């Protein structure tokens, strides 16, 4: 296993799926964070070039067998993960409110897509006139661990409402860099008509980089040994430095979460990276009764409820035959939370071995780093 630390030299561009170019939109929009496929494509290309590959069919297949996990923000040898969607921030007074699946009362109904699912609700004691606030998009991993080990979410502190600065390391909020570009007429040296466009990139705060975990087969492993190189990352060929580092400890399950998972009957799964599922928002390893086992685990779980935001599109351009645009896939966004009840199988502390492992249905999606998960516990809201 190899761990990498990636230091951007410039603001990095992670384009969303909206059209951009001549005759289309003149604004290049940026994602909130990089998809795992951005990291996987950049790293595999760098490995292939360093080994002198011609990128024929066999060599491409070998490169695609490299397992990539990430990218996740990293600062001072600490990982950060997306804010969990089961946490609602209340302002005045400041507090964190946990969403939990709850059965419907008489006369209530929903339009949930699957029978048996319970809507995720706030505790009944939340006052009328409640107004949610906004929090930072990334939490430091020990803050995430506190949230995952707290069954009802009542003992966790609230993310700060003040603007984040270099002195606050509990949370991260990357800044957007917007630039205006113009095409010049080679003959006159003046700006060409109707050739004004903008681009948007992600600026990481000082001292913040990107951490990744890589597992390469023997044919590619030599290219990662002692790696320290500059290579493009994301759109517009922006440059970043790739370095081998020792991040094995920060990628392991925190002890607090490991202890909380022991003997629990209710577990929850948070997506640290967007996931590709056969059912769109729903994992394909769940059957018609919403029961199943995650890849690499014999524990049988039943889905009780889920907090999932709007789907995110991912596409791209294929350099493999047939060359051309890739079909759009719908992703379950990072930060989504799935609430399970344990029905059968081994003990729940075995889920600690799935910490930051992929639960996607397809093997290639797992190799690409989609669907990395964080595991924790939960309990239903108590009346009153």
Number of distinct beta strands: 23
Strand fraction equals 25-35%
Radius of gyration: 22 Å
Helix content: 10-25%
Q: How far apart, in Å, are the first and last alpha carbons?
A: 49 Å
Q: How many H/I helices?
A: 6
Strand count, sense and barrel status of the largest sheet are: 8 strands, antiparallel
Strands side by side in the biggest sheet: 9-8-3-2-12-1-14-13
Q: What's the pLDDT, averaged over the residues?
A: 86
Poorly predicted runs of 5 or more residues: none
Pairing-aware structural class of the strands and helices?
Answer: mainly beta
The SSE order reads: EHHEEEEEEEHEEEEHEEHEEEEEEEEHE
What is the overall silhouette? globular
């Amino acid at each position: 296993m190899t761990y990498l630390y990636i230091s951007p030299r410039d603001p990095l561009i992670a384009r969303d799926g909206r059209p951009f170019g001549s005759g289309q939109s003149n604004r290049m929009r940026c994602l909130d964070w990089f998809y795992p496929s951005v990291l996987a494509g950049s790293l595999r290309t760098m490995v292939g070039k360093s080994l002198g590959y011609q990128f024929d069919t066999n060599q491409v297949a070998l490169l695609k067998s490299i397992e990539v996990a990430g990218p996740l923000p990293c600062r001072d040898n600490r990982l950060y993960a997306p804010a969990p969607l089961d946490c609602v921030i209340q302002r005045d007074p400041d507090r964190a409110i946990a969403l939990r699946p709850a059965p419907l009362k008489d006369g209530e109904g929903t339009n949930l897509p699957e029978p048996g699912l319970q809507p995720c609700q706030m505790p009944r004691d939340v006052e009328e006139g409640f107004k949610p606030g906004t929090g930072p998009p990334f939490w430091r991993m020990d803050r995430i661990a506190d949230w995952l080990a707290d069954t009802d979410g009542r003992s966790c502190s609230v993310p700060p409402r003040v603007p984040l600065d270099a002195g606050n390391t509990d949370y991260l909020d990357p800044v957007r860099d917007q630039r205006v570009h113009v095409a010049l007429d080679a003959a006159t040296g003046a700006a060409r008509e109707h050739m004004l466009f903008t681009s948007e990139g992600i600026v990481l705060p000082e001292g913040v980089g990107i951490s990744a975990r890589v597992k390469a087969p023997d044919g590619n492993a030599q290219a990662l040994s002692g790696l320290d190189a500059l290579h493009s990352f994301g759109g517009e060929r922006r440059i970043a430095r790739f370095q081998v580092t020792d991040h094995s400890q920060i990628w392991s399950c925190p002890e607090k979460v490991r202890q909380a998972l022991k003997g629990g009957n209710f577990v929850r799964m948070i997506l640290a990276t967007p996931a590709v599922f056969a059912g769109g928002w729903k994992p394909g390893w769940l059957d018609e009764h919403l029961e199943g086992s995650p890849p690499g685990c014999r524990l049988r779980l039943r889905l009780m409820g889920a907090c999932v935001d709007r789907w995110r599109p991912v596409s791209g351009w294929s350099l493999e035959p047939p060359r051309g645009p890739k079909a759009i896939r719908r992703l379950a966004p990072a930060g989504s939370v799935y609430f399970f009840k344990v029905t059968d199988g081994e003990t729940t502390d075995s889920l600690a071995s799935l910490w930051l492992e992929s639960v996607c249905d397809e093997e290639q999606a797992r190799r690409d780093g989609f669907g990395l998960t964080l595991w924790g516990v939960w309990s239903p809201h108590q009346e009153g």
